[in-house]
């Protein structure tokens, strides 16, 4: 039998580690022949654009470089697999590709929309009595997948966000004048990543002084009151805002084109708040949008995150060989201290097209910060540093062209 693996959705620091986990586990199994990589997610299956990963990734050095390389070396996509009733031909095309290459297991590394593809394909294969296992491997910096304690990619992004906010706080503290710095963090509907900046409080940092999440109703008047109160306490106020908060007027936030799943790309809330604060207080105000740096800052990735990403990719292969299909591999936390998790398969249908929000119990009464009760959740996920191979003072990455050319 042969297997295929694909990557989908937004890039992360950990998605290639999950790919490596699939490859390394498959190499242990004598009856697995070719390990195909599908270029640009499920589109590679539809277009029969597959590469032989055994040929592309040959040495231990290749594997180590792949592990430390951010983004998706197989490319990605934002393709929404239609219902079979809407387009049966695409399902036949996918099946023909699998038959042509004798692919008996397919591993899809992605978020909740990717789990929709896992769910649809596994049901279709069962319906036509085709023995092809389909397993989802989670990833997203948004940490918004249901049925799992956390997602690969989130820990590294959280580590980068907290570190960046700390460095911003150091930078803003050197002047004698009052200032406000607003840091805009990714998170369309779920505020996990913005909330993770509270990890700084575990080290006695006052910053971020205010944190605003999309799980709470946002009020400009209350926001300005909060900022004013903090300016009475601190010379330099650091505010973290999730990109998904709204000002009550859609025109206030810059909205870009939707992807194939109907998700709008948001940005600009930080800049809008910068203008509002500057007008009210007549002080130095700046806004900083961390943007895509949150996703691929592998130079400060979490070793825990990368290790877990590889393990969950490996576990997906084991699950398929054990007869599982239509599942997503998930983390179940046993203990915060010592940090202990297990990996288990759960129905992809429970994850597909759903979102998990930051718990209200961890948001303070004024809805402008995160309680310390959240720290035992966040801190284990950002532990450890990767030993990064360097060349000429810069990180070395596995070249995408090594696979795609």
Helical content class? 25-40%
The average pLDDT is: 94
Number of strands: 15
Q: Helix/strand/pairing class, anyone?
A: alpha/beta
| Tally of helical runs | 14
The parts where pLDDT drops under 50 for at least 5 residues are 250-266
Taking the sheet with the most strands, its summary is: 7 strands, mixed
Radius of gyration: 22 Å
Quaternary arrangement of the chains shown? single chain
User: What characteristic shape results from the CA principal axes?
Assistant: elongated
**Secondary-structure element order, N to C:** EHEHEHHHEHEHEHEHEEEHEHHEEHEEH
Structure in words:
With 405 residues, the protein is an alpha/beta fold. Helix content is 35%, strand content 20%. The chain is built from 14 helices and 15 strands. It has a seven-stranded mixed sheet with strand order 3-2-1-4-5-12-13, with helices on both faces. A four-stranded parallel sheet has the order 7-8-6-11, with helices on both faces. Helix 1 runs antiparallel to helix 4 and helix 1 crosses helix 12. The chain is elongated and about 70 Å long. About 4% of the residues have low confidence.
